[in-house]
Amino acid sequence: MTQNVIxxxxxKSKLKLSMPNVFVILFAMMFMxxxxxxxxxxxxxxxxxxxDGRMVVVPDSYTxxxxxxxxxxxxxxxxxxxxxxxxxxxxxxxxxxxxxxVLHATGAISAGIENMVTKLGKREVIIIPIMMLIFAxxxxxxGAMELAIVYIPIMIAMCLALRLDVLTAxxxxxxxxxxxxxxxxxxxxxxxxxxQIAGLPLYSxxxxxxxxxxxxLGVGILYVLLYAxxxxxxxxxxxxxxxxxxxxxxxxxxxxxxxxxEHKYIGALLIVAFALIVYGVLKLGWFMFExxxxxxxxxxxxxxxxxxxxxxxxxxxxxxxKSVLLAALVVGLARSIVIIIENGGIIDTxxxxxxxxxxxxxxxxxxxxxxxSQSIFNxxxxxxxxxxxITMPILSSVAEMVGIxxxxxxxxxxLGDGITNxxxxxxxxxxxxxxxxxxxxFTWVKFIMPLLIIWTVLGCIFLVIAxxxxxxxx
Length: 474
Fold this sequence. Notes:
Layout: H1 2-17, H2 22-39, E1 43-44, E2 47-49, E3 55-57, E4 63-64, H3 72-85, H4 87-106, H5 108-120, H6 127-142, H7 147-161, H8 166-182, H9 188-198, H10 206-233, H11 241-250, H12 260-283, H13 288-305, H14 310-323, H15 325-343, H16 347-359, H17 366-377, H18 384-402, H19 406-420, H20 428-437, H21 441-468
Antiparallel strand pairs: 1-4, 2-3
Helix pairs in contact: 2-15, 3-15, 4-13, 4-14, 4-15, 5-7, 5-12, 6-8, 6-10, 7-8, 7-20, 8-10, 8-19, 8-20, 9-18, 9-19, 10-21, 12-13, 13-14, 15-20, 16-17, 16-18, 17-18, 17-19, 18-19, 19-21
């Protein structure tokens, strides 16, 4: 009997070891992209200057071009190219990781979370919807999926204090940001740009999108809460039980909490920094360079407030940067997949094929076809604004021909892009978040897939209703 148990454990261990590393997954996708450049014909649309100065596609201008298949050596060249193009986010991840280690070493984060948990008592579960609503509110107005990377370390510390797991922390961050990005109210990179291209009043139709956003977030929050309650009740039901134990072992608790005044100052500094980042993104056009600079300042100042020497601050910073180095590299590898497809000249061909699929659908379900096609295209071009520049000029023309309102078309592209942002491994934000929390990709897929199916069904329902009521400009 004992021997059977041991054999079963060994079998499970071997099965676990057979799960591919995130690097293996991304390299496999890179080689799949290479093969696609040999199979899919090359072609391109003409492009003209768009409303924001960037180049947009001209509908009905697709022409076949000479094939430019990507070779094996080109695949490896795409890796440093991807790291170069994704350097802005990669460097920000390193800085955030370094700063977070300094903050953690001060004891301020542990003290703040301990104080919060003590005050909440048995009502501690309310912190999850509160944090998700805060993160979602920011994403609903400014987009910026990349901010999820900033939230992850804070949520990990909070969830470990609440005796939850790191998967809950990732869920809080990505589900809130992903859901709000998918049903965004005024995201300038998707909604604003798409409405400009389609010739609609800027941010019009916000009332209907608010209904979609409310339902999406309500379902997402409930989903994460149910999982968190299950883990709280029985930690062994965690999907990352072993990974969570290993994470806790390597997660160094800060020393005895001594500098109470300094903790308050550091907490205030962190609040001011987040407020400044939100204001900068909203009003000043900030992105990852500016966000990284703010975190760098926070790391130095918090260390000095905690009476650390400059050498000690530097040591903690380097240690933190090392811990997220893999996450930074993953962002570059995800970008490399897109570079291979671009070099093969097959992006426009894929767009043409997807549009042809929509054009052949019955009028009543064409809007769902746009939703599905945009979801597929998100595997090729994970950038929201990049997708809009390529697909919106074509889709808006096709939509008019088949009787779909422009607002419905834009909502379909939003949902198609946003929902799969937290599923497809080409998303640098997703993969970096998972690597930081040490959550295996396929474990995340197992966790998130039921919610994505629910969101997809809800999205289809909202799109059909939008088309039925002929949702117009306002």
